[in-house]
Amino acid sequence: THPQQQAFIAALHQDAEAQCGADLITGDLEECKAAIHATLKKLEKPTPTKPTEHAPGDGARLIYLLCDEKDRKATVPLRKFFREHGFVVEAPVFAGDATAVRETNQQLLVTCDAILLFYGAGDEAWKHAMDNEMRKMPGYRSGKPLLARYTYLADPKTSDKEDLLDMEEPYLIKGFGNFAEAALAEFMHALQSSGVAS
User: Fold this and answer.
1) Helix (H) and strand (E) counts for the chain?
2) pLDDT digit string (tens) for 126-166?
3) Considering only CA atoms, which of 68, 66, 62, 104 is closest in space to residue 83?
4) Taking the model in full, what pTM does it have?
5) Strand 62-66 and strand 172-174: pairing?
6) What mean pLDDT is reported for the chain?
């Protein structure tokens, strides 16, 4: 009955970020129990994932360029660079039905060969939410190896990004300022190898 509660319920139905990493169940307790049992059965016997049909030619590796919607424009140089090198690049889906958006983005986590998390306009809470989503990823992928998972630090500089650098976190790409191909050398090397970065 309260307007704030109504706004919260509306956000759960319409805002993909509000559902990030969660399933929305609109029903009684029995429906909730049924959904939990169905999910547990899927985890016990994961359905084999179909190989993704990548667009530009057979064998092209798929890079999931995970970013905040506000960074779409800032990722253009990266997307162009990867496409010029023969990779398929997908950014998250941002518009549409919240459930469909979440499922589409989860499918990208399942089928991609590598992930580049573009940490630019997104705040610290957004970064943690993305990290949590990626921690759950092995359960979705049915053993399919991930060639690389890196974080690309982009403008604006923040204390959290500086802290990641100061702590010498692994798999970081320092991408502040103008786009520089040289910064991607390690990531590109990982894509061309069969090793797994996590």
Assistant:
1) 8, 5
2) 999 999 988 888 877 887 889 999 999 999 999 999 999 99
3) 62
4) 0.69
5) unpaired
6) 84
* E-strand stretches of the chain: 62-66, 88-90, 114-119, 148-153, 172-174
Burial of 192 (0-12, 13-18, 19+ CB in 10 A): exposed
Q: Distance (Å, rounded) from C-alpha 108 to C-alpha 102?
A: 10
Q: Which position has the token pair 């997104």?
A: 122
Could you tell me the two tokens for 110? Answer: 């399942």
Helix, coil or strand: residue 152: strand
- The residue with tokens 């309260």 is 2
Task: Give residue-wise pLDDT tens across range 71-86.
Answer: 999 999 999 999 999 9
Residue 89's CB is within 10 A of a number of other CB atoms, namely 21
| CA 49 from centre of chain | 18
